Amino acid sequence: MKFRCERDVLADAVGSAGRAATNRTGTLPVLAGVRMEIIGDTLTVTGTDLELTIRLSVDVGGERDGAAVVPARLVGDIVKALPAGAVQVELGDDEMSISAGRSQFSVRPLSLDDYPSQAEPSAEAVTLPAHAMADALRQVVRAASTDDARAVLTGVLLASDDDGLRMVATDSYRLAVRDLPDSGVLASGQKVLIPGRALNELQRLLGDVEQLQVRLGDREATFEAGGTRLSTRLIEGEFPNYRNLLPSSYPNLLTFSKAAMIEAIRRVKILAQDSTPVRLALGGDTVRLTAITQDVGNAVEEIDASYDGAEMTVAFNPDYLVAGIDAIDADEVTLATMDPMKPAVLRGVGRDDYLYLLMPVRVP
Asked: Taking the model in full, what pTM does it have?
């Protein structure tokens, strides 16, 4: 194989596909590589860890067709370090040369025969607006767990809901729910559990594209955007019954400015060390935020707000609280509570398509 390609294009392709490669011990060594294949003037770069696969196709100046598997991280670092401009890549008998300007590198390829073959998806494709899916992923994926001990909580539930799509994620401390009406990706009553890691990677691919093709099979989900395809195995298991966590009504309602609250939390959080919660004193026309860390100090700040309900103090993990407020697409946010020990719900004023439920922290 032999081709020429702009440095930044090649670096992006290797870097994107390389995020699906793995360096975990106990896996096939070839999975630490990316597969590069030239056919005509098209370079296809693939990375996989057998759970997640990312494949990109980019236009290059092809001179000789061929394929090779090379170490993902090493080749990515080499290409990024080259001077700007055209990069020439050529596969010899036992090494791949990568050169640009006066810089030249050679890398020994991995076994091409050992690299897993990639099957074409068989499920029917559904096309969605990419910006709507990107927005929903931004709001929901943040609530998924990263602890593999409970695999079902590392996934995002996609379920059919009233001729639309509902996306749900929880790590047992918080819950995010987003509705996408008129998004008929699933059949009535169908639901799938997609790894949050895969959807995090999907968010990266949706920035500059207008449409997203989705194929949901029995065991695999495939997403195509632009010249990139992302495939992932579905998670097996039963997602928790999150509906039981959503009370039908809340007697206490706080309304505040999204920007003002985020800034206030970030300031008082400086004193919220060692998982210290931030306390919100509710009552009157302000809300007072307090963080107290023993033997270190404390921070207090008030912001304007409106409140309808009984006076109380509720406390939350400040990182989880900021994450929920930041996810809301509205200038004004409501926090609805029952009492200091029951889950609270964040929503945007005038926005019913998204909610973020947050468990409080018990404080003296």
From this structure: 0.90
